[in-house]
Amino acid sequence: MIGDKKIVFSGVQPSGNLTIGNYLGAIKNFSRFSEDYKTFYCVVDLHAITVRQVPAELRRRTYETLALYMACGLDEKKNTLFVQSHVPAHAELGWMLDCYTMFGELSRMTQFKDKSQKHSQNINAGLFTYPTLMAADILLYQTDIVPVGVDQRQHLELARDIGMRFNQIYGDTFTIPEGYMSTDTMKIMSLAEPTSKMSKSDTNQNAVVYILDSKDDVMRKFKKAVTDSEACVRYSEDKPGVSNLMSIYRAFTGKSFEEIEREFDGKGYGDFKMAVGEACADGLAPVRDEFARLMADKAHLEAVMKAGADEAAYFARKTMSKVRRKIGFVN
Ligand code: AQP
Q1: Of all residues in the chain, what percent are helix, strand and coil, respectively (each to 5)?
Q2: Which of 40, 59, 76, 206 would you call most buried, defined as having the most Cβ atoms within 10 angstroms of its Cβ?
Q3: 53 and 169: one domain?
Q4: 174-192 per-position pLDDT tens digit
C-alpha cells in the first residue's frame, strides 16, 4: 500500500509494434486502476533484449510504447510511467532473485520453450531468466495487482512463488501480488493461425493487427483472417478462427456472444469479417490520432520518462534497502 492505495504494476516490451493483443489483453485495462490505485506502468526494455534488437528501432519503440500508454488513456499525472532501464534496481533485484529461483522452475516456463524454438540461434541466459526479472519488476514496488494477459499467468505464478520463498527465508519482505486478467478479452489469437497467440514479433504481417495500422490495413487483414468451412458465426472451441474474431468484435463493441450470433445469423463470413474490421478500426482511430499528437513532442515524452523514473526509483530504493539488509549486505 502507498497511503491508502493498493499498488498496481505492469509492463509491455518495446520489442515490436504493439498489437491489438497487447491492447485488449493488457493496456486497455491499465487505465481502470488510475483513480483508486497507485499505478506503475513500465516500458520493459531490459526484457526486450532477450531477443536481438536493432538499436535505433529499440530506441524508437521505447518512445512509441510510452506514447501508446498515454494515447490509450494513461494520464502521466495519475500514473507513474517510466522506462525499466532508467531504474537500475530492476536489474539489481533481478540478479538477487535469480539466486532464489530454481533451474527446474525456469525450465518449465512455456514461453521459454516457445521462444527457444523461435530464436534457436540465440537461446541466451536472459531468455531463460526473464521470469525472474519480471518477478523483480513486480516485487520491487510491493505490488498488489498485476494486470496482464492470460498468457502471462505462469510467469505471475512464479513471481508469487519467488516472493513467498524469500519471505519464508527472511520474514515478511515482499507483498505477494495477485493477477488481474480480463476474462472479457481472453487471449487474442493470430488471424492466420488461430491456435497460436497473436504476437508482435510474428513475421507474418497478415496474422497480426497492430494498434497503429491504417483502416485499410485493418480491413485487409480481417478480410484474409482464417475461419472454417461451416459458414456459421458461432462461438465454439472447435472453431478457433471464428471464436477469435468474435472475441475481438465483443471487445470493441461490448456485445455478448449471443448477440453476435444473432446479428450474423444466416449471413456469411464476408459480412462478419467486415463488421469486425470496422469495429476494430473505429475503436483504434482515437488512439492513433492521440499517438500522432504525442509523438510530435519528444521533449514532453522525455520529461514524462524522467519524472516517472525519479518517482519509481524512490519507491524501489525503499524495497532495495530492506532486501539488502535482510540478505546481509553491508549498507
Ligand atoms: N495475444 C495476446 N492476447 C492477450 N494479451 C496479450 N499480451 C500479449 N499478447 C497478447 C499481453 O500484453 C502484455 C505485454 O506483453 P509483452 O510485450 O510483455 O510480451 P508478450 O506477452 O511476449 O507479447 P508479444 O506481443 O507476444 O511480444 P513478443 O512477440 O515480443 O514476445 C502482457 O500483459 C501480455 O499478457
Answers
A1: 55, 10, 35
A2: 40
A3: yes
A4: 999 999 987 665 689 999 9
